[in-house]
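Subject: mismatched residue count in predicted assembly?

I count 398 residues in my input, but I want to confirm that the predicted structure covers every chain. Input:
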Amino acid sequence: MGAAGKAAGPLSHRRRWYPDVVQQVAPPGTFDLGPGYLDPGLLPVDLLRGAYADALAEFGSAALSYGPNSGALPLRALLADRLGPPCTPDHIMVTSGTSHALHLIATILFRRHDVVLVEQVGYDLGRAILADSGLRLRAVEMDDSGMVPEALERALGAAGDTPAFVYLNPTFHNPTGLLVPSGRRRELLAVAAAYGVPVVEDDAYAEIGLTRSGMPDSMAALSGYRGVIRLGSFSKSLAPGLRLGWLAADPETVARIQAHHVFDSGGSPNHLASLAVTTLLATGAYDRHLTWLRSALRDRRDALAAALSANLPERFVFDRPAGGFFLWVTADGERDERGLVTAARNADVRVLAGGRFGRPARPSVRLAYSFNSPPRLTAAAHRLAAAWKSTERRLPCS
Ligand SMILES: Cc1ncc(COP(=O)(O)O)c(C=O)c1O
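Triage response: the counts match. Full output below for your records.
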C-alpha cells in the first residue's frame, strides 16, 4: 500500500514510477536498457491531459458510452486516410494495443494447434501470446534483410500440417532493429500468396522512423490489404497506458473479428482513449508530437551508438538502426551470451539476452535506447564496454 500512500498529494508525473503503478521498475542505480518502453520524460502527459479534455468537450456523454464494436468512426476514418487507398474505415478495427490484436487473431481466426511461422528471432512476448493461445510456432531462417523467402517456401511446402499464417515484424524489428527492404517484402508476400497463407504484419514501431530517407510501403499496402493483417499501436508513438492500437485488413476479416461477442458485450476497447487520440490526429498535434519524439529518440540512439562504437571491443558489432527502440549487438566467436548479460548486470546495466527472442545466429544482446536520457546511455555504454572487455580477458578462445 506504500505506493498508493505516496501517490497522495500533487502529482509530479516523472516521479510516480512505483512498482505497483507501472509494469517494471529497475532496481535503484541500474541503467535499464531492458524494456521497450519510452522514457518517462518522453510520455506526453500534458498533451494527453488536453486531448482527454477536448474529447470530452467535443463528444460529451458519447465519449463515456460503449463505443461501436469496431471502434469510433472518426478515429477509423482518420486512420484510413493515413493508411491511404484502398483503406476505408471498414478495413480498420480499434484494439487495445497490438498485444490485444494478436490475441484476437490467434483465438478468433485460428484454432488451437494451428502452426504459425515466425522469424528466427522476434518479439518474445508476441510469440508467447500466440503460443499461449495454443498455436504451434515454427521458426524460419532470417538473413540481414529479414525472413529468407526460400526458407519460408520450404516451411510452407514441408510435409505435415500446413501453416495457418506467418507472423512478421518487418519495420524496425524487435529485437534487431531491422527494416525489411521493399524487395524482400514483395518476395515474402509472393511466397505466402502462392500458398494462400495470410501474413500478420506487426507494425508497432512503424511511426518511429529516425532517418530522413523514405520508408518502404507496409506489406499490407503492398498486398492491397488482401492476405495481410497489419497491426498498429499508439504505445510506442504516444503512450502504452492508452492501451490503444488498431488492426487493418480486408473488410471480411475485420467483420469476422468484430462479430465476436466480446465486442457485443464490451463495445470498442478504450473508447475514451480512442476519442482523445482522434482529437490529436484531427488537429495535427499527433504529427507535431511525432516530429519531437523522433528527434528525442534519434539523440538517444546516436548517443548509445557513438559511445559503443568508440569503446566496444572489436569483436562486438552492431548496425545503427534506422528506427524503433533497439540496438542489437552481436559478438563473434564462442562468447557466451549469459556471460555478457551477467557481466553487464555486475556493472549495473540491464540488457536482454538474444536467446530470449529465439535462436540468434551469434551470441547477441538487445539494448533499448528508448528508456534513458542520452547522458545515461553514454554512461551505460562505457560500463558495458568495460564489463565486456573484462569477460574477453577471461575467455581463452577470444
Ligand atoms: C513488435 C512488438 N509488437 C507489439 C508490442 C506491444 O504493443 P502494444 O503495447 O500495442 O500491445 C511490442 C512492445 O514491446 C513490440 O515490440
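The two ends are 50 Å apart (CA to CA). Marking this ticket as 'not a bug'.
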